[in-house]
Amino acid sequence: MKNLIKILFVLSFLLPVCVQGQTVTWQNVYNYNGQKSGGRDVIQTYDGGYIICGALPNKIYLIKLNYLGVQEWDKVLADTLGEYLFAFAIQQTADSGYIMTGRSGINLAIIKTDKNGILEWKKKYSNFAEYSLGESIIITSDNGYLACGEIVTNSISFSYLVKTDNMGNLQWERMYLDSGSTASIASDILEFSNYYYMSGISTTTKGYLRKLDLTGKQIWQLNFPSIVFFPKILKLLSNKIIFAGLGRPYGISFAKIDTSGKILINKVTLTSSFEFYFSSMCINSKQEIVVCGSQRYPPKVGFTYFAAAVLDTNGNLLNENRLNSPNNVYNAPYAIQSTLDNGYIFAGDTEYNPDSDNLNPNNILVAKTDSNFNTPQVVNIENSSFYIENDYKLFQNYPNPFNPTTNIGFEIIKPGLVEIELTDISGKKIATLLKENKTAGKHEIIFSNRGLASGTYFYGLRIDGRLMSVKKMIILQ
To answer: Hey, how many other C-beta atoms are within 10 angstroms of the C-beta on 190?
Structure first.
């Protein structure tokens, strides 16, 4: 028995890794102080959680979540001069911080924060232009940054590429425009085998893919007239390139290309609804292409839902599903990433607002799914306007592991409605252990396992409807 207790104690610290054998699913809405907000990008972080790159009016909104979707912190980044500040893409850096690209004022900007979302620096580029912005960013093999997007000069829009060192100092910049075109925008960038590959769209060629050397000089360009919206690019283990975007008629325009520029496959894949609005894609552990987008249901007349489709490396449809997004409102995903537990994380916008009869124009919707895109319904909205970290403390239960009872303590510095919720390792709610108005100060409850099976469970502290903290407990029969 003592050995079993030791094993369970060790496993409790390894749970974020061990739980990868069982996919965690959840779906939450996030908002800041009732303001219009939206999710633009999401990545899984080194600790197994997630960072959401979001938007508020004229500001960047970062939300750090643990792997259960519980908010650990959020940060609002604003321009010191009151100018517009926005980010479309985010990556995690080697120091566990974050790098983003978007726009500051009228300029493409690269923004660097530490691991807690504290701004370290912000650099603006293209001061000679009328307007520019960044759509995508990567960390390059020399530990610098490469951002792509759009630049407007003399009323003509060019695809724009900015290369910097790891402090954001400009190393070079290039503009690209097809002959006869009046507008061109770069939407994605990747690096491998000492070359860059940039995708985008222009008024003459529609979708394009460019191969560039490490100074940005073009080697070849391929055009794909079937693509009508910002295309994305991925690299397969076979060193083939996948190029995809929104195609006609509302399908997935798919191409596979080798590094010499030879087009191996070029087709439009239709989903069963014939109304799939492509937004982003990723590769899963099976080297399948997973595409996310909006799907209207019922077709042509209904609201839009998060949706996803799985394609093989030849562009054939393997699986598709419409997520369990909030009903009777418009939902739009902008980003998808595969996760360590063989599921997926989506981020985007929703009109859903369970706290009000009047729909907020936008909130941030984040969905964590299994490999078939199953996820539970949204049950709450996480609003970040009420409490800060020092307003509460949720203490580790004792004893732990336990049988049959344990003590759960918490502390709040202002009165409020306090709830203690119990969930299993999949995030399914089992019981509400406490739901009472509490005064400021320390409180404690005694929990009996109520016949629950041995294993790991979670208890969460919710204050005035907002989930503040979650801790693990182990029941040992």
So the answer is: 17
User: What are the tens digits of pLDDT across the range 282-326?
Assistant: 999 999 999 999 988 777 777 889 999 999 999 999 999 999 998
> Rounded CA gap, 163 and 123, in Å?
12
C-alpha–C-alpha distance, residues 34 and 355, integer Å: 10
CA–CA distance, 160 with 199 (Å, rounded to integer): 11
Is residue 231 within 8 Å of residue 245, measured between CB atoms? yes
Quick one: which H or E segment has residue 79? none
DSSP symbol at 231: -
Grouping H, G, I as helix, E, B as strand and the rest as coil, residue 29 is strand
262 φ, ψ (degrees, to nearest 5): -80, 125
Distance CA 228, CA 18 (A): 42
CA distance 260 to 274: 33
Length of the chain: 477
Determine the Cα–Cα distance for residues 283 and 112; give it in Å rounded to an integer: 26
Name the one residue in this structure whose structure tokens are 């009420």.
Answer: 386
Q: How far is CA 450 from CA 404, 405, 447, in A?
A: 8, 9, 8
Tell me the C-alpha distance between 51 and 90, whole Å: 9
Categorise residue 436: left if φ over 0, alpha if ψ from -120 to 50, beta otherwise.
beta
- A 10 A CB-CB count for 395 gives 15
Q: What is the pLDDT of residues 260-290, one digit of tens each?
A: 999 999 998 888 765 788 999 999 999 999 9
Query: What are 4's two structure tokens?
Result: 């079993």
pLDDT at 426: 62
Contacts of 91 (CB under 8 A, 6+ apart): 43, 98, 99, 100, 137, 138, 139
Q: Which residues, 6+ apart, have CB-to-CB distance to 356 below 8 Å?
A: none
Q: Token digits for 344?
A: 């997926």
Element at 4 (helix H, strand E): helix 2-13
Element (H, E) at 170: strand 170-176
